Amino acid sequence: MENHGTIYLVGAGPGSADLLTVRAARLIGSARLIVHDGLVDPEILQLARPDARLISVAKQRARHTMAQEDICALLVREALAGHDVVRLKGGDPFIFGRGGEEAEAANAAGVRVEVVPGISAANGAAAAAQIPLTHRDHSSIVTFVAGQCKGLTEQNWAGLAGQGRTLVIYMGVKTAPQIAEKLMADGLAPDMPLAVIENGARANMRVLRGPLAALPDLVERERVKSPALIVIGEVTAEVTAQLIEKAAIQTIGVMQQ
After folding, report:
1. Are the C-beta atoms of 57 and 85 separated by less than 8 Å?
2. Exactly one of 18, 41, 51, 59 is catalytic; which is it?
3. Which of 116, 136, 189, 194 could serve as 232's disulfide partner, Cβ 3.0–4.6 Å?
4. For residue range 152-194, what is the model confidence (pLDDT) as tens digits?
5. Apex CA 47: angle with CA 45 and CA 50, to 5°?
6. Could you report the per-residue pLDDT of 1-13, keeping only the tens digit for each?
7. Catalytic pick from 37, 41, 84, 92?
8. pLDDT tens for each residue of 83-118
9. Which CATH architecture has domain 122-242?
10. Active site includes 59?
């Protein structure tokens, strides 16, 4: 391993370069080779040194630039050749980022691997939208689910969302109709409030709200595109009420002046 390079699995956070960790920014700025996902904002890639090799392995639904097995092989091959590799991922490498698979491949090949955590998409997007994933009065349990997981309809989602719980669904835009149907079939009320956060923590972020039953229509009508998160739970309704009340108070104050 002494002559081998190191594979750094680096979380790029939800979008903005301002939300990178100091460690991530330093690695990006010094790396000679960066293998990055399609969700990594161009602003972050601009931090790379001018002579750095940038390799995109962007994944989209039903169309991958490179299969995951090939990505793992690329990382290991470059490290065995003595090159340090920054594997740059949106959000956090170990939350729906396939970082676990890449770490396993590196360890199996005897290559040193280091994980640099990032602000997850759920944390970053919810914070930017001022939606608390937990709230002392409304939610003490948070669950993360992949909306494009295999066997979606066969899984039991009962109890994942409801009173005192928050459900965050990654990669759920294309399967929004199945998700809504699945949750209601497993017992969740059709009027359960939710928020769809598109391009969370970025300049073009949108936050759309509605009841669970209207999720498919909301996504279609507003032409929601990835990256987007679906947050389901009373916390989305609570923050909406607070923001409306705050806006009303501010408006009254301005009128009185």
Report:
1. no
2. 59
3. 194
4. 667 788 889 899 999 999 999 999 999 999 999 989 999 999 9
5. 90
6. 568 999 999 999 9
7. 37
8. 999 999 999 999 999 999 999 999 999 999 999 999
9. 2-Layer Sandwich (3.30)
10. yes
Structure tokens at 21: 């960790």
Q: State which amino acid sits at residue 147.
A: G
**Token output for 145:** 């689910």
Q: Which residues contact 225 (CB under 8 A, 6 or more apart)?
A: 173, 198
- Return the CATH superfamily for domain 6-119: Tetrapyrrole methylase, N-terminal domain (3.40.1010.10)
- CA gap 141, 79 in Å, rounded: 40
Nearest residue to 192 (alpha-carbon basis) of 218, 174, 210: 210
Q: Annotated catalytic, 37?
A: yes
What is the DSSP track for 54-88?
EEE--EETTEESS-HHHHHHHHHHHHHTT--EEEE
- 8 A C-beta contact, residue 142 and residue 37: no
Q: Give CATH 3.30.950.10 domain extents, the chain.
A: 122-242
